[in-house]
Amino acid sequence: MKTLINWFDHRTGFRSLTKEVLLENIPGGSRWRYVWGSTLTFALFVQFITGLFLWMGYSASSGDAWESVNYIQNEMTGGWLLRGIHHWMAQAMPILLLLHLMQVLVDGAYKAPREVNFWFGVILLKLVLALSLTGYLLPWDQKGYWATKVATNLANLVPFIGPEIQKLVVGGTEYGHHTLTRFFALHAGVLPALIVLLVIGHIYLFRRHGITPAEPIKKKDAFFWPDQVFKDAVACLAVMATVLFFVIWYHGAHLSSPADPSEPFSAARPDWYFLYLFQFLKLPAFAGDKEVWGAIYIPSMFVGLICLMPFIGKWKVGHFFNVGVMFAFLGGAGALTYLAKHEDVAGPNSAIYLKALLDNERDARRAIELARHEGIESTALNLLKTDPKTQGPKLFAQHCASCHRYDGHDGLAHSLPDAKSLDELKQRTSSLNRFASSNSVHPDWSARFKDSNDWQTVEAIIAANREGTFEVIAGNQFKEAPSAPDLKGFASRQWIMDLLRPEIYISKRFFGGTIHKDGDMYRRFLNRKVTKYDEEEKEMLKLVALALSAEAKLPLQADLDKADAELIQQGVDHLIDDISCINCHTFQEPDPDVEGPDLTGYGSRQWIIEFVKNPEHEKFYPESNDRMPSFGKKNILTEKEIGLIADWIRDDYYKAPNSPITH
Amino acid sequence: MDNNEDINPDSSAVPEQDSVVEAISNIDSDIVQEVSDENATSPVACRLSEVETSTESEEDFGERRGFVKFLCIVIGGIVSAVPFGAGIWAYLNPLTREKEGSGDGFVKITTLDAIPADGTPTKFSVISDKEDAWNKFKNISVGAIYLRKEDGKVKALHTVCPHLGCFIDYRSIKNDFFCPCHNSNFKLDGSIVSGVSPRPMDPLKIEIRNKVEVWVKFQNFQPGHDHPIPLS
Ligand code: HEM
Ligand code: FES
Predict the structure, then answer these.
(1) Predicted structure pTM score
(2) Which of A46, A383, A453, B14: disulfide with A370, CB 3.0–4.6 Å?
(3) Superfamily, domain A2-268
(4) Main-chain phi, psi angles of B137, to 5 degrees
């Protein structure tokens, strides 16, 4: 071994180089406080390696970026680990940068003759932040898309050339392929190259001047190797272990749903280390045309001040001033970060913010699920756009929920885990809980006693102070009570049996809010006859319900309908003869004289689509339609959109086996 | 330096140093001497040599430092290996990714009438579904084949050259197959006339379904072998 090393040394002189590197003198001996520079170098190294490997799976185009990152994260063996390390190490870097900067300032290591090196450091800090900013967009998910959009729009504020700068950064006026290609070239090419150059310069200058020992020096000098190296290595190990902890905890890194210019994401925020700037801009002082002060002038002046610190620090007072300024900055930034977070989870718009997070999570999981099951023929976004489970409730909330409900809400609510007691509900509603926990509840959301139908605001439930088990949903509250039937489970056996019970028929959940509560169905059939049914007739009515429900051919009921074929046939007979629904309804054979809606294929996809297109069609309510718009005839909704709603109401869409989603 | 005291092992706990560690420790002591006499004029070196002489006098100190160096190398190795490990794991993904087989592998190509009766080979695109990493394309061309009637029976040959995968041409003037890359020449039945191809053109299984539909089991094969081995 020794001969080999000697041989190699003769050709390369690596020994003297190693000596140079390893045997740097550290006055006062090795110290833990000197480790931050090394951990940063290490973090950069990790980012370069993992970034390079990510590059091998990443595709920088607006139709492929999310798709390829999803593939890395969810399909590639080890991809989650790779992406996770890159993501979480990027999260660690701002902290390490800060620790490094503070150590340099507090120990006075920035003063003459080290001004230039200090500036190198400041530039490096900016470059690393630029890497984080550009990296945030690369997955092309809702989070990165909307947050980065805000950041690039700020470029607009630059005096004189703002709009041009923005155009150049974005690669046009709109976000698209070129935004990604440009951001990616910056992220993986330009910025890393600059960083390597500056790091070399930084370390060279550092070695030239030597380390600035932290006063007072109590111990003997020592070499860099092995004592300081050992401390550095342990620190790197700690950093890596922390990063790996988060990587494993989150199984990689979060990927929100595919970027969608037509879908707002109210919870888009910059990464946490930019939150203070984000909050700073929200200060009333920067409203209107004064925004440029908060976005550009003041931050630039502050960076300018930092660059002047080596000169200010020449005086003892100056040094204290510098350190004071930095701590004041830290305090301020910390406070602003807290405020930003607090406003999000407990401010006036917190219900919207917290729900937006849940909405996005739902879409993200769905996109991942569909990508896996169906494969992506065009884009992942397109999968979501043609998915009844995703679009149905959105369309329902927009067009139907002003009168109808879906399980008491507008279709978009999220069921949260039940609260087993009032105390649990209270505790989950606390703002402390909302800061951190994923099962937190906002007071504006809704809850109901288990086995009741009516939602109340969580606030009202808590105020009423009655013990119980509660179902909880994250959902919008309504100004008005429902005035048309609740369509959850529409045409299912239960739904039709409920419909045929007089007291439920005229409740708000069914037709109580419509003119039909005074119609023949109630007055002449349910109220006059059904209320007086004997046991045998009640049994027949039940079979009628089965038969009518079978008309819908609901996928969820397919097995039941098949098993009960005989009963269903009996039900059909009763429907025609004994119970005589056909006195008022068409069934199977067209009958122009009856007034009630056609029961043939009731609740089937086709039936729903035709009904929604035109409820006033003679098959349905030619005379007695109550307010429902003719969505198709008036071109409010396309047939495709109506189909999405129908499929969603009928629960007719792909369901992932043991999907983590619970609704 | 007292921060290191807690890891001071008793001598039995010192692991056996591997040769690299030894070598590095040796370098170290070589260098220390060189530093102290070469740079004796610089103040830094003066301080260094003081340190060294004073520390070396402590009895078991050398051994402890050896252990510290060993730890440095172990820890450094571990933390540097992590990003490489994750990267290489993901990079090796293609080796473990299973190709999704759809059905029996037969693809409908054309109908009997579209193939010339006189035995002239005709090229047909293979239109099928294709999985390409995160994309799944429906009905796109995934390759091409030659179909030819021989005594009324249909024969299929792959268009990909068994040598190194170029596209084999049909030359109507000479009525033969020709690979332009390294001049391999095949007869109409696919057998080799001349050139470097290690095997005849690859035949593909054919089925006639519903009386007139020509279905082919479309596969790609590894290049370079003397018999066809399907790519999987
Ligand atoms: C200090 C250095 C770097 C930092 C701070 C950094 C930061 C980031 C961040 C924050 C993301 C978004 C990750 C996510 O949450 O999904 C990202 C993504 C990415 N980075 Fe870097 N990066 C660095 C260096 C590099 C280098 C050197 C390369 C390539 C040579 C690279 C390639 C990528 C790629 C391909 C992605 C997209 C994949 C993904 O989003 O998971 N990065 N980077
Ligand atoms: S590839 Fe056909 S001869 Fe070489």
Answers:
(1) 0.88
(2) A383
(3) Cytochrome Bc1 Complex; Chain C (1.20.810.10)
(4) -95, 140
